[in-house]
Amino acid sequence: MGQGYLKIAAQTASGALPVEGAQVVIADHSGRTLYTLTTDSSGQTESVSLCAPDRSTTMQPGGEAYSTYNVTVSKDGFVTETVIGAEVLDTIHQTQPVYLNAHFEGGGDAETIVVADNALKQESPQMQQSGPRLSPRVLNDVIIPAAITVHMGDPNDAGAKNITVRFPDYVKNVVASEIYATWPQASLEANTYAIISLALNRVYTEWYRSRRYNFDITNSTRYDQYFKEGQTIPDNISQIVDRIYNQYIRRVGYKEPLFSSYCNGTTATCSGMSQWGSVTLANSGYSAVNILKNYYGNNIEIARTDKVSGVLSSYPGYPLSQGSVSAQVSRMQTYLNRIATNFPAIGKVSEDGKYSAATAAAVREFQGIFGLPQTGVIDQATWNKISYIYVAVTKLAELDSEGQRIGVGVSPPTVVLRRGASGADVVQLQFLLNAIGTYYPSIPPIAEDGAFGANTADAVRAFQRRFGLSADGIVGPATWKKLYAVYKSLGLGTGGGGGVPPYPGTLLSRGSTGNDVRTLQTYINKLAETSPTVPKIGVDGIFGPKTEAAVTAAQKLLGLDPDGIAGPATWGAVVK
């Protein structure tokens, strides 16, 4: 018998807010309590030891591999969450994320997630496809999505729910759900590259979206790859993904990510990579790249893209450490200080561009909270993680402030909205759906453009399903009432904007004129006083090329889509 290690991370708002002071109970399957713990200011418990089968059982097909335990997390104001089947592997440190939903009147008091077995322990058929042969359209470039929407079933299973999750978190989940963290490093990396590449191929070819599905990928191994709700994340897998999530396999001379099909190699075989075979090759001394070439041919390469949707800047190409002095250090200090507002254990530092001992200490604390080696050095994995978490926490802040600015009042509207509607009421609807969707990942993010199209209808139906309404995609009195009830339960605030100019209700772009443009220019200049990447502009009420460039720079800084157009999200982030 071996021993593994488990830490619980209680979070809300898609991981952007820790839940401090939550009670955590870890029990075995007989219901016997093994540990009672309390989360700290970072929403985490201490790491505890639990029995697991010996590591050797994970090295051959058919082994027992891991033990499972039940985890219950509760706190006043939140729905109690129980995870049945948290996995523990011998010698491996793992984190069980638990996403708590705010309790609202009329909602349930408890929710349960039952974690399915690892794909290697299942007998269901695995991916047999050779990959997509025809696709109606592809994106212009390979871009890492900020988030990916997973359909929890076969493509045509209309009853299966969708879950939207940040892309690196998706990859970590799939790797942990498909293979064992005890495998050799080269095997873990080879499988991670294949998983990233397959997912990016689905996004790049818009394989499902172009066929009018409202998701990017499924969790069915008949079609795609395995994603498990409630999956425990091993620290070593988390660290690999944080380092390489923007790297993928492609054929030499081609742009698109390879549809890197794979299977376990025992109960299922395919023309792609054998997962168990990758272990044998790694133990024989093969590197990750050579394992991939063994299965996909010598004409492949590992490509990297710095085009990461929602992430503000790419890694400079070298680590930042104590003694470094640069604009990149200043940027990381700014990000860390904003993250520290939500995770106070990190501590705030001077934003002077000098990598001091205090900055190194803040980096070490950040690394500890988010499962990275605590080196105090900002390497690529740490840079990537800081950027992602910064975007998450700043967008959460924008939801709060923006809700006040667009006039979410005390009483819901009386208008009935359906597909084809447009205008300010639709913007308000889209804002509410995005705000609530930050806490409930089954509700997909949508553009706040005032047009009630297919994506908005899908989000409405997802909200209605999540909160027990008839999922007809029409926003009538019952749906408006529930939207407001859930929104208020999250503590996001309603009412006026405290003297801050409200969003004018129309998009501002090149060619716009008037007082609203003048207001935007004034606040852009305030932002420029503390952010050198944002240029100062004339306050003349004319939205010309310089204003457009300044808006684009502000959007990049604030983690928004840099399109140079001031809609509700940009206005809410800048005008505050």
Walk me through this protein's architecture:
The protein has 576 residues and is an alpha/beta fold. The chain is built from 14 helices and 17 strands. The strands form five sheets. Strands 1, 2, 5, 8 and 13 form a five-stranded mixed β-sheet that branches. A five-stranded mixed β-sheet has the order 4-3-6-7-9, with no helix packed on it. About 4% of the residues have low confidence.
Helix content: 25-40%
Shape: globular
Task: Please state the structural category.
Answer: alpha/beta
Q: Supply the number of helical segments.
A: 14
Largest sheet: 5 strands, mixed
How many domains make up the 3D coordinates?
5
Strand % is 5-15%
Low-confidence stretches: 128-136, 399-407, 493-499
Quick check: average pLDDT?
86
The count of strands amounts to 17
**Radius of gyration based on Cα positions:** 24 Å
Distance between the termini: 57 Å
Structure described in brief:
This protein is an alpha/beta fold and 576 residues long.
List the helices and strands and how they pair.
Layout: E1 2-12, E2 17-18, E3 23-27, E4 33-38, E5 48-52, E6 67-74, E7 80-88, E8 93-99, E9 110-114, E10 147-151, E11 162-166, H1 167-178, H2 185-204, E12 217-218, E13 233-234, H3 235-244, E14 247-251, E15 262-263, E16 273-274, H4 275-283, H5 288-296, E17 300-304, H6 327-342, H7 357-369, H8 380-405, H9 424-437, H10 454-466, H11 477-489, H12 515-530, H13 545-558, H14 568-574
Parallel strand pairs: 1-8, 7-9, 10-12, 15-16
Antiparallel strand pairs: 1-2, 1-5, 3-4, 3-6, 6-7, 8-13, 10-11, 14-17
